[in-house]
Design goal:
single chain, 146 residues, alpha+beta, four-stranded mixed beta sheet, 2 helices, 36% strand
């Protein structure tokens, strides 16, 4: 018959090991309702980002075009004036606040990265965002004057 005294160290070590493992695996508990609400808000901020894009980015050389910045905000949205951080606009187009306007002078493809900062929609702030805009300008290249 096995005596309790001889099994005590084994049982004691097993119990301590189980306790340590359960403490290490258990996620931290948030008991305060305010802390839980703050945690939910922070998770929502990390998940959501306002989608911004430009419409009408295809045009024809020699014909006026306007491309406007849009966002998936159900009401008016805003940001600081956007700025080009990489690439170039097609010759003949310029930035006018949130619009890209002008008359493209030559056909081709251009990729421009435009940065929006201090973005807001319905009183909520969103992180700064870089938007890639692809311009496809069709038509004939201008002829050199002789």
């Amino acid at each position: 018959m096995i005596k309790f005294k001889s099994l005590f160290p084994v049982i004691f070590c097993a119990a301590i090991s189980a306790f340590i493992i359960s403490c290490a695996v258990a996620p931290p508990q948030v008991n305060d309702q305010k802390d839980q609400a703050d945690l939910r808000r922070e998770r929502l901020k990390q998940i959501q980002q306002l989608k911004i894009w430009y419409n009408n980015t295809s045009g024809k050389a020699g014909f006026h075009m306007v491309s406007q910045a849009r966002a998936d905000c159900p009401v008016t949205w805003n940001s600081n004036d956007p700025s080009i951080v990489d690439g170039y606009l097609p010759p003949g187009l310029t930035m006018d606040k949130f619009n890209i306007v002008g008359t493209p002078q030559q056909p081709g493809n251009w990729l421009v990265k435009i940065r929006f900062t201090s973005i807001t929609c319905q009183g909520r702030s969103y992180p700064d965002q870089d938007v890639d805009v692809f311009f496809n300008i069709q038509g004939d290249a201008p002829r050199a004057l002789e």
